[in-house]
Structures are given as C-alpha cells and as structure tokens.
Amino acid sequence: MKKITAIIKPFKLDEVREALSGKGISGMTVSEVKGFGRQKGHTELYRGAEYVVDFLPKAKLEVVVKDDDFDSCIEAITKASHTGKIGDGKIFVTNVDRVIRIRTGEENDDAI
Predict the structure, then answer these.
(1) What is the spatial distance between Cα 104 and Cα 80, in angstroms, rounded to a whole number?
(2) Which residue from 45, 65, 49, 44 is spatially nearest to 108, judged by alpha carbons?
(3) pTM exceeds cut of 0.85
(4) How far apart are the C-alpha atoms of 109 and 111, rounded to whole Å?
(5) Res. 36: pLDDT tops 70
(6) At what angle do helices 70-81 and 13-22 cross, to 10 degrees?
(7) 53-111: pLDDT as tens digits
(8) Model pLDDT, residue 8
(9) 3-state class (DSSP) for residue 61
C-alpha cells in the first residue's frame, strides 16, 4: 500500500476529488494548509499599504491506496491539478506497512 500526499492549488481540489472518484477512490483526507516553494510569496495591497504574503494557501490531500491502484491515482492527481504555472504543487509517496479500520478491526487492503 502507498500513501499519496498531494499539495495542490485549492481551486483544483474538486477536480482532483472527481478524478480520484473516477478511479474508485472514495476515502481521502483534505486539509487547508499554507506554504511556499519556488513560487515564493506575492505582494498584496491592503488599505493602501503594500505587504508581502510569504505563505500561500494550498490544499493538502492524503489518500492510501492499494499498490494496484497507485499509478492510476498519481496520473489522475497530476492531470487534474495541472495548470502549467508555477505553484501547481507536489506529490509525495510513502510506503504504508499496515492499515487498521478501528470500527471493524479489518486490516490492510480490507481496511482501505
């Protein structure tokens, strides 16, 4: 099993969710986060004063998938979140050794 963590632009979240649903993935965790990479920040004007916004709003999506579903999920996230502009985000992949559904005690693939 793999855990896919994707940091994407917030307005792309619905498209990514729909793309993953199309691949049969129904469970995911989403968080509103802030951060920056090469995009750095940007300047904004507020009540006539200019200030720098270092951290930009992002959406963090986490999903655990079976190894068989991994490649199609990465492809779906990449296609749905791509704008071609700086700040599109990143995808991180980690191995998951064990998953347990608390309610039933099911483990691993059965718990996903």
Answers:
(1) 33
(2) 65
(3) no
(4) 5
(5) yes
(6) 150
(7) 677 889 999 999 999 889 999 999 999 999 998 888 999 999 999 999 999 999 988 88
(8) 96
(9) strand
Neighbouring residues of 15: CB distance < 8 A, sequence distance ≥ 6: 80, 81
How far are the Cα atoms of 37, 46, 53, 100 from residue 50, in angstroms, in the given order? 22, 6, 10, 50
Is residue 43 within 8 Å of 50, Cβ to Cβ?
Answer: yes
Under a CB-based contact definition with an 8 Å cutoff, are residues 19 and 76 in contact?
yes
CB 3 within 8 A of CB 93: yes
What pLDDT score does 50 carry?
67
Q: Are the beta carbons of 63 and 27 closer than 8 angstroms?
A: yes
Instruction: Beginning with the edge strand found earlier in the chain, give each strand of the sheet holding 2-8 in spatial order.
Output: 29-35, 56-65, 2-8, 89-95
The model's confidence at residue 37, banded by pLDDT at 50, 70 and 90, is confident
